[in-house]
Request: fold
Amino acid sequence: MVSAFSRFPPRLQEAIAARLGWSSLRPVQELASHAILDGKNAVVLAPTAGGKTEASMFPLIASVMEQEPQGVGLIYIAPIKALLNNQAERLGLYTEMVGLQRFLWHGDIKESQKKAFLKEPATLLMTTPESLEVMLLSSRIPHTQLFADLRAVVIDEVHALAGSDRGTHLISVLERLAKYTPNDIQRVGLSATVGNPLDILKWLQGTSRREACVVDPPKIPSSKELRVYLKDTLGAIATHASESAQGKKSLFFCQSRSLAEALSERMRNRGTDVFVHHSSVSLEERTVAEARFHQGTNASIICTSTLELGIDVGDLDLVFQANAPSTVSSFLQRLGRTGRRANQRANTTFYCENIETVLQAIAIIELARQGWIESVPTQTRTWAVLVHQLLALTLQFGAISPERCWEQLSVVPDFSGITQAEFTTLIKHMLQHDYLFCAGGLLSMGGQAERVFGRKNFMELYAVFSSPVLYKVQTKAGYIIGSLEQAFVDKLVPEISSFLLGGRAWTVDHINLEEHSIRVIPAPRGKKPSWGGFAPQLLGFEICQRIAETILADHEIPYLDALTQTALEEYRADLRPLLQGDRSIQVESDRLLWWTFAGGQINHTLKYGLQFHHDWKIIADNFRLKIEGDSVSLTTLDLAIDRMSHAEFWQHPSTTRFIFEQLPNYRLSKFQQALPDDYVLEMVSSYLLDIAGTVRWIQSSDAPFLGSLTR
Reply:
């Protein structure tokens, strides 16, 4: 078979050999290049640092070299600006070495540079979904001229977008872009970790009529270094991690900003240079951290998910994890940051604060070892983004008919489950509440939408995610440390309150409400910021079931240290009697504990189903339900579970109405305020509940007995 490399134009072949010193392509690059040169849409899978960028960009550059496009020919999309900035030099080299240009477009790029680009467009545009929306909504951008010859779009880290509101937003914007060109835009998604690549490919296809394929070369097995430690204090975690990090470069992942701040404060002055990297730390501080980390040999960045994606921070020695991530996919992304050098093994060390997160870490590791990764959820009724896109279309065109809106939006996969009648109901509701205005049969933005989303030239409409009001935190000398959200600032008292930011403790000196700024002075010690959140963390069914398997097992876990193994054995001894026998229900004097290990969604579904039958107080988490009430007994619980095992129970209007009335008022999107109540409840229900999964689980596990631990 002819090599893909030989199919590249001679000029590209020579440039790759001369400038990069490559004499051949990696397997993923060979396979992807053939597929892309053949004109196929593709999802390309390879480990972090496995060469996915070149696998997509080399064949696409080759495809535009013979006949250069008029305007933008290729778009590279990344989920975050940091990844764009990180890839800018590399993609700039690849285009420049064959005489093409690339341009980086996001919020930090100067207006003068953007104007120059519009006068003389580059072949490759690098941007984010939100920046593409900005371009479509701007009357200063000649869309038809700029995108008339658009030929291909590459979406990096596609798993981070698909199945989310941002993914729906992106695919909607791509379909709107497609209206400006007669070309069938080729679509390529890049990912290191995804459990259902065929579903992602179908989602990515949209209205494209091209052939499509998944490029997934065989993975070469490699050994990993994994350790899980139970440390009951942050001080103990900081001490052990600091000792392990001496003379090395490490990333320390945390599940929250507050934990990152607390750990960084405790790790300072313990022998390593410590930096903090999360979304509330200023861009300047993050940039300094990345630069000094690149150059150093004895440094640790304490971070949240901001460094989980493929941002290159140089050669890493170690990855640490405080507690455990909530998904296998996230673990694999973080693990993949190491092991890139010859003779180095990928590694992760977990530091857990309690036995529950030890079990979560074990479950995630074991699922990864058997090759299981979460599937990205497919969406067909993404109501909040439908509102967003309706408003965006009115802003883009000034006035637009409902029929044209339906024509543009009904082709988006994430809206495919919404009927035209439901769409009409949404339009009527938005007209009644002044989010839309109708004149002459054309829709335009209503006064309420302008009041809610029109600030700062409709900045709120550029992104589907909420942009909280941020207060700039700066020293007396004017140095910007980072930012804090409004809800946290509301609790601060000048000259009294202290908090952690950038890994240091600060005392509030002055709060300027008009300018949204806080002046601070150094404090001897800080108080942990309460970053908080609106909704609980829901662990998946498979992770929770694997946790139950770990409790029921009696073998030692090879990557636990002796103290952690002892703690696990004690926990097993306490819980195993409840799970080994027939019943997984713990009977206490005033309550029942039902150990389901079915995950957050199924347990919350069970909670509302049980409350339909009885006036019980029920608290649900990922592993169990606590049930209290006068009539609570094994008999009454058995009867209620039997009813819930039938789909007809859940489909009955009285059940549906009751559950909708009980659902919490979670704020899942800034656009849900423009939706009818029924559609809002559907949103919350789809986030919190899994009725089909609950019925399937009850029937397969013969609840209330634990039974089989596999779905």
Remarks:
- The chain has five domains: 4-215, 224-369, 383-461, 470-522, 581-701.
- DSSP finds 29 helices and 24 strands in the chain.
- Residues 12 and 121 are 21 Å apart (CA to CA).
